[in-house]
Amino acid sequence: MSKELTTAYMGMELSSPIVVGACPLTIEPEHVRQMVCAGAGAIVLPSILQEQITHSMMKWHDPLGAISESGFQPQQDQYNGGTTEYRETIRNLKKLCQVPIIGSLNGSTEGSWLEYAEEIQAAGADAIELNWQDGMPDPHESCEAVESRLIALADSLCNRLSIPVAVKMSQRFNNLASVAHRLQSTGVDGLVLFAHRPQWDVSIDRMHWTIRWELSPTGSLGTTLEGIVHARSGGLDLSIAASGGVRTGEDALKAMIAGADVVMVTSEIYRQGPGAIQEILQGISHFLDTSPHDSLMAFQQSRPPVEFTSERFGRLEYVDPLTRSDHYADPIPEVSGLTGDAYGHPVAGQ
């Protein structure tokens, strides 16, 4: 008999630990219905952008300046529905399904645009996720100053709202644990580790860098696990969502042992459809059915704490696996030299 998969995230009770991460799929009611039926415990809407909100606030009294100063572009509304439709989407999804609906804001600086968070709350969102994207920082600005801008933004947001707030962090902080603890002091309820990053490349013909968005690559879970463990050090008391690289039930279990309360799944849904959620949950259920834990929450409560160690032992975690063996695992699968004939019989490659 399958054991209880209920868990808690930012004070909300979720029917399962699978949260559908922010993406355009989650503004489509039919897609959301299918993902909830497959077992999703919560839904995160695609982010409303600071540029969109600024444009909508300026366009009535300064239409030309609204375009030139806000950074708004029409395709942004196609991505998430736009500021007006976004509120309506929340209301409709709350009528459609019983799982928490989490709004999302994407921005970099404090300002009047944060007032829109209150509209998201008024529309019925159960929580808000702040995706802080700072772009390319000034080389003369210190790391402390960059971090302080995030802390101020999170503090301002928390002071405006009564619903839970999560901060979706990047991997770029020098001391992730320090930033996590500073965020906790602002009243933030959770962390999402990590924000998805675009893929950078350089066009040789144009002699310029290019940026494109792509699904999370296979084998990327390790970075997420490392971030969760680092963030939890020092007794951090925040909910954590693992975001990036979760493809299977085993991946989800690893993330929860590292310290996650829920796992966000997005890329795998694009690859396989809503059935990916069901497959991950089946993997978790199979493990629990053969484990001594009575429920998922009991399993999560049994995970080991993250404790400070001396610099010598901290270094040993890195140095020991580096020097213990000269054999290194290759994550790129070896391509078979065999091909098949018309009947599926293997034939040696030429």
UniProtKB/TrEMBL annotation:
Entry keyword annotation includes Ribonucleoprotein: no
Domain Dihydroorotate dehydrogenase catalytic per the UniProt entry, residue ranges: 63-288
Annotated Gene Ontology cellular component terms: cytoplasm
Biological processes, Gene Ontology terms: 'de novo' pyrimidine nucleobase biosynthetic process; 'de novo' UMP biosynthetic process
Gene3D superfamilies, A to Z: Aldolase class I
Record's keyword terms, sorted: Flavoprotein, FMN, Oxidoreductase, Pyrimidine biosynthesis
The EC number(s) this enzyme carries: 1.3.1.1
GO MF entry, a single one: dihydroorotate dehydrogenase activity
Cofactor(s) required for function per UniProt: FMN
Name of the protein in question: NAD-dependent dihydropyrimidine dehydrogenase subunit PreA
Lineage, broadest ranks: Bacteria, Pseudomonadati, Planctomycetota, Planctomycetia, Pirellulales
